[in-house]
Design brief:
Blueprint: E1 6-15, H1 19-30, E2 34-39, E3 42-46, E4 56-66, H2 70-81, E5 86-93, E6 98-99, E7 104-105, H3 109-112, H4 114-123, H5 136-141, E8 149-153
Antiparallel strand pairs: 1-4, 1-5, 2-4, 3-4, 3-8, 6-7
């Protein structure tokens, strides 16, 4: 097993309708630039109070070990989502702290978005947030439940065996 230099958390978002194969293809593409060591459960996030499936996303967080530098990884992510109704958001990159117009790390949603916090904690519970100096497990225990989301499927179903 190769030792990879960098550990990241990546937020995967696609439309609910037809989004499962897109999410699977994004995970397969990410595996080309590193090793996916964990994937959270996949959740359905409703985008309106009416809770209609046509207005929902599926979301998960993957832990990716890679030898890519940040800018290279972001370039790959941009290529992967081109022409797709999807997004790959870099939530963390080792313990790097960056605040610039192009990139903020750790991503603000890593401690403010209830669903992302829970998914990230499933993927890497022991990750220590470099600013808050708490693990994701500790941060999760302090957050409220995500009321706009529900379990959709197991994260392992995104990975091709």
């Amino acid at each position: 097993m190769k030792v990879l230099n960098h550990q990241t958390l990546v937020h995967i978002v696609t439309d609910l309708v037809g989004g499962t194969p897109v999410a699977q293809s994004l995970v397969a593409e990410m595996a080309k630039v590193g090793e996916i060591t964990a994937v959270s459960s996949v959740y359905k996030r409703y985008l309106s109070n009416s809770r209609v499936d046509l207005n929902a996303n599926i979301e998960a967080v993957a832990r990716l070990g890679t030898d890519c530098e940040v800018d290279e990884l972001l370039w790959y992510f941009k290529q992967y989502v081109k022409d797709k109704q999807a997004a790959l958001n870099l939530l963390s990159y080792d313990d790097l702290v960056v605040l610039s117009p192009q990139l903020t790390l750790p991503h603000p949603a890593l401690h403010t978005d209830f669903l992302i916090v829970r998914c990230a904690s499933e993927a890497w519970r022991q990750f220590e947030h470099p600013i808050m100096q708490k693990t994701l497990g500790e941060i999760t225990s302090l957050t409220f439940p995500a009321t706009d989301a529900e379990f959709f499927m197991q994260g392992k179903s995104l990975i091709a065996f």
